């Protein structure tokens, strides 16, 4: 029976950047830090110029003849490249609509769990559909469900913007939140001044449950 193949669990070796002494070409076309052309010079001379400027000699085009190098601050260059890659990845993220479901009679612990779920979705760049599900005669408590959703929107205002206010959808009530694009500022204080009193005094989930019990 042939021996079973072994899997190499070692981390893959990263290729080191072609900078300074790692550049093996003898003749190079060199671009200075300010973008000016220094022409075709030998490797030793290019390294000497980069050292005098306290910068790095970086190979930017290996396929050219002769290869092209640029004198630059490689640490700063690498940081900017990584930053651009992160921004590109963020922009390429396909926005999805995630859903957070709850009953209008929800206890404080479950409410905090829903808050946590929504925060994770919003931070990932997804929209959040908040749904209050009614069963049987619970449909008569739409006003309490609306208050609960508005409470949720207020608790998530640092991470989200309300794209769609609470509304009936069949036997459910829904609200749509999208990730906040701009941080909260003093405009929040101005908005609170003109908000209806009913919105500024939205009861907590526990209070909602208590009010419902009193009605029944």
TrEMBL record:
General function of this protein: IF-3 binds to the 30S ribosomal subunit and shifts the equilibrium between 70S ribosomes and their 50S and 30S subunits in favor of the free subunits, thus enhancing the availability of 30S subunits on which protein synthesis initiation begins.
Primary location recorded for the protein, binned into one broad class: cytoplasm
Gene: infC
Residue ranges annotated for the Translation initiation factor 3 N-terminal domain, each copy included: 19-88
Regions annotated as coiled coil: none
Stretches assigned to the Translation initiation factor 3 C-terminal domain: 95-179
InterPro entries: T_IF-3_C_sf, T_IF-3_N_sf, Translation_initiation_fac3_CS, Translation_initiation_fac_3, Translation_initiation_fac_3_C, Translation_initiation_fac_3_N
Keywords: Cytoplasm, Initiation factor, Plastid, Protein biosynthesis
Annotated protein name in UniProt: Translation initiation factor IF-3
BP GO annotations: ribosome disassembly
The protein's assembly and partners: Monomer.
Cellular localisation: Cytoplasm
């Amino acid at each position: 029976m042939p021996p079973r193949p072994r899997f190499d669990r070692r981390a893959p070796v990263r290729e080191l950047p072609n900078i300074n002494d790692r550049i093996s070409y003898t003749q190079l076309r060199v671009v200075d830090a300010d973008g000016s052309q220094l022409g075709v010079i030998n490797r030793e001379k290019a390294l000497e110029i980069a050292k005098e400027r306290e910068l790095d000699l970086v190979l930017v085009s290996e396929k050219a003849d002769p290869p092209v190098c640029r004198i630059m601050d490689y640490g700063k260059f690498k940081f900017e490249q990584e930053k651009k890659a992160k921004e590109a990845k963020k922009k390429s993220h396909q926005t999805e609509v995630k859903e957070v479901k709850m009953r209008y009679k929800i206890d404080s612990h479950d409410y905090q769990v829903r808050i946590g779920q929504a925060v994770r979705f919003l931070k990932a760049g997804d929209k959040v559909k908040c749904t209050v599900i009614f069963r049987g005669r619970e449909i008569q408590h739409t006003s309490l469900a609306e208050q609960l959703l508005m409470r949720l929107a207020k608790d998530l205002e640092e991470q989200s913007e309300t794209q769609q206010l609470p509304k009936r959808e069949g036997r459910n009530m829904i609200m749509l939140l999208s990730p906040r694009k701009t941080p909260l500022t003093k405009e929040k204080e101005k908005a609170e001044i003109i908000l209806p009193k009913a919105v500024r005094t939205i009861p907590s989930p526990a209070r909602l449950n208590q009010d419902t019990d009193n009605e029944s």
